[in-house]
Design the sequence.
């Protein structure tokens, strides 16, 4: 049995269509009214979008119902599916806590409420029934004010048992006019001892080398090998890892074909740059992590040796994985011990 690590999954896009539809039926029937039936909703929810900006609008649909009261419901089902269907041993779940607070409150009260959100998600993620090690990545947001983003960084530092890193989400096209501000925020995060990742070099509009030195991992980063391969040696020297989410690039219109990912993997492997394969928005895409693996193999983008390398890389770059090895090594040791015991009993 293989066990996997998922390093890039959004809480807002992690809810599979069937779970979301049932929640709407029971709690928000008004949200089902635009759709004739479940099939119509699923088609709307999972269809490709023309741009990343259009794609991100779908997050607002889920964020609006991921309230304090509803978060345990969604997280329990998320972890159940991740354990039963994906064989996940480790999951980093990212989201913007501010966007789970009531939007009718003033900004200062919403900032204060973020603490409750982190605690609710943290407690709900500790599931003995489904033994997955789950940690939070708190996302700053490119459309939120500086004061909110700084509060998110400070909140992450206050909860080391629940939060393993900070991120920047919300669409990379927004970075340019506030780049100095975001550089400062990432610098502040590093000063506080926080791990960092960030949505960067996902699209041709999101290429900002000024942010690279502040990141320990790079969310997506596919435009580096595609358009700026001269940056790969310094990425390798820093030990940075790309979080590549194959299905996303078709859903957002960033790539026309998965075949365009072949040079991403080839150039990164040649340069010694690590890649972790991730899902990004498993529910929104209606996919599971093993499906991403199988798709890359089917399209001959990587081979089994490269796949195994990427799976190992995911555990090595996991911000909170407490072991030196991935679970396969631990299971192998347990099986060897069991064999030794059985042999001893037999004698």
Sequence:
């Amino acid at each position: 049995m293989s066990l996997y690590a998922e390093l890039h999954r959004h809480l807002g896009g992690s809810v599979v269509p069937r779970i979301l539809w049932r929640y709407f039926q029971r709690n928000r029937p008004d949200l089902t009214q635009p759709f004739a039936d479940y099939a119509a909703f699923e088609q709307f929810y999972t269809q490709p979008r023309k741009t990343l900006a259009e794609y991100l609008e779908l997050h607002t649909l889920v964020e609006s119902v991921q309230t304090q009261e509803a978060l345990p419901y969604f997280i329990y089902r998320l972890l159940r599916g991740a354990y039963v269907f994906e064989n996940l041993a480790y999951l980093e779940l990212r989201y913007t806590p501010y966007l789970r607070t009531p939007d009718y409150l003033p900004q200062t009260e919403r900032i204060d409420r973020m603490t409750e959100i982190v605690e609710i998600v943290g407690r709900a993620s500790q599931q003995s029934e489904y033994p997955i090690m789950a940690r939070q990545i708190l996302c700053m947001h490119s459309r939120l004010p500086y004061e909110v983003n700084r509060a998110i960084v400070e909140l992450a530092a206050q909860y080391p048992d629940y939060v393993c890193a900070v991120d920047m989400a919300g669409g990379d096209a927004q970075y340019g006019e506030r780049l100095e501000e975001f550089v400062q925020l990432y610098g502040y995060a590093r000063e506080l001892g926080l791990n960092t990742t960030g949505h960067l070099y996902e699209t041709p509009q999101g290429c900002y080398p000024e942010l690279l030195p502040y990141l320990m991992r790079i969310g997506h980063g596919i435009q580096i090998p595609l358009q700026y391969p001269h940056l790969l040696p310094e990425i390798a020297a820093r030990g940075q890892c790309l979080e590549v989410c194959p299905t996303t690039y078709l859903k957002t219109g960033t790539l026309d074909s998965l075949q365009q990912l072949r040079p991403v993997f080839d150039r990164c492997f040649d340069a010694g740059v690590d890649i972790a394969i991730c899902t990004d928005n498993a529910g929104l895409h209606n996919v599971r992590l093993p499906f991403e693996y199988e798709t890359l193999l089917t399209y001959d983008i990587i081979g089994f040796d490269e796949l195994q390398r990427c799976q190992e890389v995911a555990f090595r770059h996991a911000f909170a994985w407490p072991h030196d090895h991935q679970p396969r090594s631990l299971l192998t040791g347990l099986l060897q011990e069991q064999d030794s015991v059985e042999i001893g009993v037999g004698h």
Observations:
- The radius of gyration is 20 Å.
- The chain has a mean pLDDT of 92.
- The chain has one domain: 4-346.
